[in-house]
Design a protein that fits this description.
mainly beta; disordered C terminus; eleven-stranded antiparallel sheet; Jelly Rolls; 2 helices; 18 strands; seven-stranded antiparallel sheet
């Protein structure tokens, strides 16, 4: 029903909308009339959630195995689950370094779900536990993330560290001091934040600090190429709009070139992936609900060359990010 080369190159397409409608079984209106299928596609691994408070949500992780998910590690071919890093343990999706014997060596991992999405709400819980693997960077301590509007897994270069995407950065707090979670990071991308095109690589959220190994509830609300919101514990902690490719980024340039001269840079759909950045963590209750596809009106913003924000190489205070 869907192609691995899903609509990352330009604007919303009927193919992506059909996937959303049939897979997520929510009222998603492809022109000219809304439809509400009776069942999700058999080709996508999803499970309906019966809880009335979760109406419209479907599970994208079966709690038994990694069916429907594909790993990609830096320096390795697509599909190689390096040292069994991504695994299912006691019904949760775990990022484990139990079987790593050497240094981390910059071998970042991403676990891609098999279908692209455009307008949706994603909910899950996460937590950090254990010790960081030897050789992990200081900024990666108790650090993970969920990538949305990402490039297709099979377009990543063998040596590429991170997919071109929008990252909802997940951080665990230190024993002392503050460290927000639900932050925004932008590998190969930019966004419009507080009315201006913002080129900073990471922007801190307004969340509280979460220490220890307790579960933290996260929600990501995505409106195609429009507004994206991050919620932690049910509270909005980050909001921005107009996710777009960054012309300065080498990995993003191939997608910009594929769009052709004069095409806009807005990202309206893409992959979802979970990170493995050197610290053990777990995810559970991964579920998604489709949202109606509304007309998008991009916010007025300067071009990338006109925008302010972080200069290359500067850190974002409190982000704890590369």
């Amino acid at each position: 029903m869907f192609s691995a080369r899903f609509p990352f190159a330009s604007g919303p397409t009927a193919l992506c909308f059909a996937v959303l409608a049939s897979v997520l079984a929510a009222q998603v209106p492809p022109p000219p009339q809304p439809v509400q299928p009776d069942a999700p596609s058999d080709e996508i691994r999803v499970t309906r959630i019966q809880d009335p408070e979760e109406r419209g949500f479907v599970s994208i992780f079966n709690g038994r195995d990694l069916e429907g998910w594909t790993p990609k590690f830096t320096g390795h071919e697509l599909g190689v689950n390096l040292n069994d890093t991504f695994r299912v343990r006691d019904g949760v999706l775990a990022v484990s370094y139990d079987d790593w014997e050497g240094d981390f060596g910059g071998q970042f991992g991403h676990l891609f779900f098999e279908a692209p999405f455009s307008h949706y709400v994603m909910r899950f819980e996460y937590r950090f536990l254990g010790e960081q693997v030897k050789g992990g960077a200081g900024w990666a301590l108790r650090n993970s993330g969920v990538m949305v509007h990402g490039q297709p897994a099979d377009t990543m270069g063998k040596g590429q560290q991170f997919p071109v995407s929008i990252e909802v950065q997940l951080l665990g707090g230190p024993e002392e001091g503050q460290r927000t979670t639900g932050n925004l990071c932008t590998p190969g991308t930019n966004v419009v934040y507080e009315g201006k095109l913002d080129r900073r690589h990471c922007i801190s959220s307004r969340s509280e600090t979460f220490r220890g190994d307790g579960w933290v509830a996260c929600e990501i609300e995505v409106h195609g190429g429009g507004v994206i919101r991050h919620k932690i514990g049910g509270r909005v902690v980050m909001e921005y709009r107009d996710p777009q490719l960054d012309p300065r980024d080498g990995d993003a340039k191939k997608f910009i070139e594929a769009r052709g001269e004069g095409a806009d840079l807005i990202l309206r759909s893409g992959s979802i992936s979970l990170q493995a950045e050197s610290h053990p963590c777990e995810f559970r209750n991964l579920r998604i609900k489709a949202l109606p596809i509304e007309e998008e009106t991009p916010a007025a913003a300067p071009t990338t060359s006109e925008a302010g924000g972080r200069k290359d190489g500067e850190e974002t205070p409190g982000s704890g990010r590369r």
